[in-house]
Amino acid sequence: MCPLSRVPPGTAVKVKRLFASPEHCRRLREMGVREELELKLLLKNRDVVCKVCNRRLALSGKLADAILVQPLCASEPTRLPEDP
């Protein structure tokens, strides 16, 4: 596991744990970022842009540091959740 901010762009990952404040964790979950979610990191500078539920989501680098993820194996098919 590593912070989302350390994953190279183009990598599909699974969220394993949120280490932000309770308020930030609640807001992340409201935006669709929760444990066991599969997402793809699209862009990384000081901030990061992810594909979450067919939407792009920009996060600060500090917040991306608080999201622990596990890269998905290349042999595992990436199934990103669709909109309801």
Keywords:
single chain, 84 residues, alpha+beta, SH3 type barrels, six-stranded antiparallel beta sheet, globular
Structural summary, described in words:
This protein is of the alpha+beta class and 84 residues long. It has one domain (2-71): Roll (SH3 type barrels), CATH 2.30.30.90. It is built from two helices and six strands, in the order ββαβββαβ. Strands 1-6-2-3-4-5 form a six-stranded antiparallel sheet.
Q: Averaging pLDDT over every residue, what do you get?
A: 87
Major β-sheet profile? 6 strands, antiparallel
Strand order within the widest sheet?
1-6-2-3-4-5
* CATH architecture title: Roll
Strand content: 35-45%
Q: Helix count?
A: 2
- What structural class is derived from the secondary structure elements? alpha+beta
Number of DSSP strand runs: 6
Rg from Cα: 12 Å
| Parts with pLDDT < 50 across at least 5 consecutive residues | none
The CATH topology is: SH3 type barrels
CATH homolog superfamily: Ferrous iron transport protein A (FeoA)
Number of domains: 1
> How much helix, percentage-wise, in residues?
10-25%
